[in-house]
Amino acid sequence: MSPQIRIVLVEPLYQGNVGSVTRSMENFGFDDLVLVNPCKLEGQARAMSCHARDLLESSQKVATLEEAIEGTDIVIATSGIAGIKTDQHIRMPAYTPSEIRNKFRESKGKIAFLFGREDNGFTREELKRCDMIMTIPTSEKYPIMNISHAATVTMYEMSNMEIGERPIADGFDLQLLYDHFEQVLADIKHPTHKMEKTSIMLKRIFGRAELTPREVQTLRGVLRDIQRQKK
Amino acid sequence: MSPQIRIVLVEPLYQGNVGSVTRSMENFGFDDLVLVNPCKLEGQARAMSCHARDLLESSQKVATLEEAIEGTDIVIATSGIAGIKTDQHIRMPAYTPSEIRNKFRESKGKIAFLFGREDNGFTREELKRCDMIMTIPTSEKYPIMNISHAATVTMYEMSNMEIGERPIADGFDLQLLYDHFEQVLADIKHPTHKMEKTSIMLKRIFGRAELTPREVQTLRGVLRDIQRQKK
């Protein structure tokens, strides 16, 4: 079980950014995009959206933040400034994207991630509507990220995508390889008192390398060649 | 100890992407950028780089990949396609950014992260020069990310940035708050047989909420108000 995600851009100023965000949404498998009073979306937006043009066209355009978050359960504003002050008396602690992921990993429901205006972020009133603040850990010298970058990091954390299986050699074949190494060490008259340490070291090196089945095959071929040369 | 990072863009075609990458580098505190045969870098690159214009100007421009990776210890190519084939016979397993981070977390030395051409990625010869392949987990339907997005995710994982301390109430004050709750439950004649369960539930709710010192203060004020009303 993992939460559904809505991306909300609040009054984006640059159409290229909107296009970029849709591309990234398509990359990470999200399709719920709401734009609050967006800039014009024309050629530049379409160019940056690449293969996500359908998502750009189908995004919902609304006039107010209230409409944008309708139907969501948790509203999270992203900000480059940690621990933003929403009011004289209310200081909201900020969470990192990975903390947010861990908090909501098993949750049902829908989370709205809000990204503010490129120049002025959010108004105080808008921040008051949010349940949480998220901040991507960045350099103090220059904490303000491009909104499509911030959205990309957010979606990277929140998506459940996986890369394909890595073909890893199975333990039995690895053991045959390690045994083979020991035979070769004996064949080449590696000093007896170093044998055990060297075997262990080789095992560790190749263990760490996470060999593929084909790599094990090739290494064993090389060991056979060494043995053949010796005869 | 953590590794140094070099970002290498191989023949980038769009100057906006190069500018975007420099902005993101500045966000995450990296400054080693090498461009192999880049496109012209003019107004659009400067516009997207925002406050990272110095980094854009100071980036090293070279003619070959060999020059770009000089002085680095590990060369990692990023690719949208997991388990890319570099050759008929050599299939390289791909790692995710977080796997790469964990592998090299304690390493010294310098890692070059390579990002390929926007249209054609890397040549086979270029991939042969790489020690590892990194793939960001994405949708199979559309795995190809914008290079500045891919670079941003990479730097997000590899940077050691932190967000400021979250002001968390200390245990002693929390205990006072929980005791206060119990008093109030007694004052308002909450059924005795429910007391313990309700106390525990309140403790869990407020524990999960990671209260700030100010929030504890305010909650205790509210509890005092309840007690005052009762008298």
Automatic annotation (TrEMBL), chains A, B:
<dbReference type="GO" id="GO:0002128">
    <property type="term" value="P:tRNA nucleoside ribose methylation"/>
</dbReference>
<keyword id="KW-0949">S-adenosyl-L-methionine</keyword>
<comment type="similarity">
    <text>Belongs to the class IV-like SAM-binding methyltransferase superfamily. RNA methyltransferase TrmH family.</text>
</comment>
<dbReference type="GO" id="GO:0005829">
    <property type="term" value="C:cytosol"/>
</dbReference>
<dbReference type="GO" id="GO:0008173">
    <property type="term" value="F:RNA methyltransferase activity"/>
</dbReference>
<dbReference type="GO" id="GO:0003723">
    <property type="term" value="F:RNA binding"/>
</dbReference>
<keyword id="KW-0808">Transferase</keyword>
<dbReference type="InterPro" id="IPR029028">
    <property type="entry name" value="Alpha/beta_knot_MTases"/>
</dbReference>
<dbReference type="Pfam" id="PF00588">
    <property type="entry name" value="SpoU_methylase"/>
</dbReference>
<dbReference type="InterPro" id="IPR029026">
    <property type="entry name" value="tRNA_m1G_MTases_N"/>
</dbReference>
<dbReference type="InterPro" id="IPR004384">
    <property type="entry name" value="RNA_MeTrfase_TrmJ/LasT"/>
</dbReference>
<feature type="domain" description="tRNA/rRNA methyltransferase SpoU type">
    <location>
        <begin position="5"/>
        <end position="156"/>
    </location>
</feature>
<protein>
    <submittedName>
        <fullName>RNA methyltransferase</fullName>
    </submittedName>
</protein>
<keyword id="KW-0489">Methyltransferase</keyword>
<dbReference type="InterPro" id="IPR001537">
    <property type="entry name" value="SpoU_MeTrfase"/>
</dbReference>
